[in-house]
């Protein structure tokens, strides 16, 4: 048996063994309101969807003003920045990179100019035909300053043929393949667009006579806004001085929303697909208990995303639930180099155990997913060191055997532990006494009664649209480098 090697504390703090999301977006149309400040607080509520960069663009009906910066939302904006962003339309974005590297040039919103004036765009998702579209747009004469698929969408929309925005949006949606929830700002309108498969969430609400578009409904709750509805898959809505109306709605009936919104991405207080995420996660835990029962004394969850599932498991199994792991929520990226003693602490920088709860107990740990398997052995070992006599690991997502190509940074085939090891080999690797994954059928049953309206590509390899076997998030940068080399 090969020796298990554990990552350093910095690796644990900076690279969680979790899928990473592709951004949060917001749009605000509210004459008479401080729209930049509203957008700021919505982005603050969506911080869990991306932590690399943030930006806000505001229009006063004539001029678009943009502010972007690296870092968390609270770091990206100062009071004077918000005071400078005056107007009645705002869009905002907080980024985790899935296409293009983590540089300021790739921060969003992206501001471009076309024949119909300036527009700003924020994008959540991933475009699978971005390289070919970019080459075509360059032949049109478009100039690119970033290396993201989001800029490709922005340039395509800004230069699309059509008499009005309805025709231009239709053209863009016919050409772009992949996942996209968009907020678009022109000088006098706010446009929200969701791809035909509905991969990423997008909702619209109303507040004080104005409208707010956001990735998740929890962001509306913080502002006291009323959730009106979700933007339908394949729908584009426009909000301006004439109110809100549907600009375009496609006829595609196939749906493939990302199942990981329920498993991990969305906040538990968000409503996705008409369902409270917390309740869906409880149902996952209950189904997991039915599929993989085991005698134990206590059920704990890996905080925070697996807490609801752990409660569901405990209720279904009739075993007490307790907090056994506490999370340090302030562990994150740091430029301070730790000494070797701190490095050796490993995952203890992030989690601490309640020994009085775990000592002498048979413990069930419920986790949301296992991607690379780098953190899970540490968690199991922490619980064992706290005195647990048995540790049984239960995972409320099926084994992840395929990378995602629609906007989730899910590692490569080489890195995915379930793509390279059997369930028993994974159990031995993580060091638990038993291991049980929720089945694909059980997951669908817990989410929506068994209906197959979700993308399950990371579990089954069956993606809702044709994709390359393994796309590179830096493919646009590679293509640009090749083009420059050939030109030289």
Protein described:
- With 488 residues, this protein is α+β, with helices and mostly antiparallel strands.
- The chain has two domains: 24-254, Glutamine Phosphoribosylpyrophosphate, subunit 1, domain 1 (4-Layer Sandwich); 271-460, Rossmann fold, CATH 3.40.50.
- It has 19 helices and 23 strands.
- It has a seven-stranded antiparallel β-sheet.
- A hairpin with a 2-residue loop joins strand 12 (235-240) and strand 13 (243-249).
- The longest helix is centred in the middle third of the chain and has 15 residues, at 277-291.
- Mean pLDDT is 88; it is low at 1-15, 332-338, 469-474 and 481-488.
The strands making up the biggest β-sheet line up spatially as 3-2-4-1-10-9-11
> Count of DSSP helices?
19
Task: Classify the secondary structure makeup into a structural class.
Answer: alpha+beta
Taking the sheet with the most strands, its summary is: 7 strands, antiparallel
| Rg, alpha carbons | 23 Å
User: CATH first level of the largest domain: which class?
Assistant: Alpha Beta
Please, what is the CATH homologous superfamily of the largest domain? Aminohydrolase, N-terminal nucleophile (Ntn) domain
β-strand amount: 15-25%
Quaternary structure classification: single chain
Which fold name corresponds to the CATH topology of the largest domain?
A: Glutamine Phosphoribosylpyrophosphate, subunit 1, domain 1
């Amino acid at each position: 048996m090969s020796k298990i090697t554990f990552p350093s504390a910095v690796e644990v703090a900076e690279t969680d063994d979790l899928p990473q999301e592709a951004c949060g977006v917001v749009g605000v149309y509210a004459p008479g309101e401080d729209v930049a400040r509203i957008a700021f607080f919505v982005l603050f509520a969506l911080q869990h969807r991306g932590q690399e960069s943030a930006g806000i663009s505001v229009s006063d009906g004539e001029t678009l003003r943009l502010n972007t910066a690296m870092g968390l939302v609270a770091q990206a904006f100062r009071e004077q920045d918000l005071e400078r962003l005056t107007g009645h339309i705002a869009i905002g974005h907080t980024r985790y990179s899935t296409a293009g590297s983590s540089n300021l040039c790739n921060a969003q919103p992206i501001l471009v100019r076309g024949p119909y004036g300036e527009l700003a765009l924020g994008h959540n998702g991933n475009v699978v035909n971005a390289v070919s579209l970019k080459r075509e747009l360059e032949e049109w004469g478009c100039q690119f300053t970033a290396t993201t698929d989001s800029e490709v969408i922005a340039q395509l929309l800004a230069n699309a043929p059509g008499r009005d925005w309805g025709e231009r949006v239709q053209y863009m949606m016919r050409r772009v393949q992949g996942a996209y929830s968009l907020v678009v700002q022109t000088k006098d309108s706010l446009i929200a667009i969701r791809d035909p498969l509905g991969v990423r969430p997008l909702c619209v609400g109303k507040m004080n006579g104005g409208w707010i578009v956001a990735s998740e409904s929890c962001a509306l709750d913080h502002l006291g806004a009323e959730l009106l509805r979700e933007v339908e898959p394949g729908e584009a809505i426009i909000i301006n001085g004439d109110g809100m109306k549907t600009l375009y709605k496609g006829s595609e009936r196939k749906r493939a929303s990302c199942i990981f919104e329920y498993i991990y991405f969305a906040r538990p207080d968000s409503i996705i697909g008409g369902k409270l995420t917390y309740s869906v996660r409880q149902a996952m835990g209950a189904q997991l208990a039915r599929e993989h029962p085991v005698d134990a004394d206590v059920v704990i969850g890996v905080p925070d995303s697996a807490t609801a599932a752990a409660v569901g498991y405990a209720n279904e199994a009739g075993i007490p639930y307790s907090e056994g792991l506490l999370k340090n929520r302030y562990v994150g990226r740091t430029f301070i180099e730790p000494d070797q003693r701190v490095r050796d602490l490993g995952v203890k920088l992030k989690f601490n155990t309640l020994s009085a709860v775990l000592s002498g107990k048979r413990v069930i740990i419920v986790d949301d997913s296992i991607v690379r398997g780098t953190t899970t052995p540490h968690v199991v070992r922490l619980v064992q060191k706290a005195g647990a006599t048995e540790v049984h690991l239960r995972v409320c997502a099926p084994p992840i055997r395929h990378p995602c190509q629609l906007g989730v940074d899910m590692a490569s085939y080489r890195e995915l532990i379930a793509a390279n090891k059997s369930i028993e080999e994974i159990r031995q690797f993580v060091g638990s006494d038993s291991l049980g994954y929720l089945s694909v059928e059980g997951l669908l049953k817990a989410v929506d009664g068994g209906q197959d309206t979700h993308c399950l590509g990371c579990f089954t390899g069956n993606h809702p649209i044709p994709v390359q076997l393994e796309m590179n998030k830096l493919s646009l940068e590679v293509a640009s480098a090749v083009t420059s080399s050939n030109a030289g």
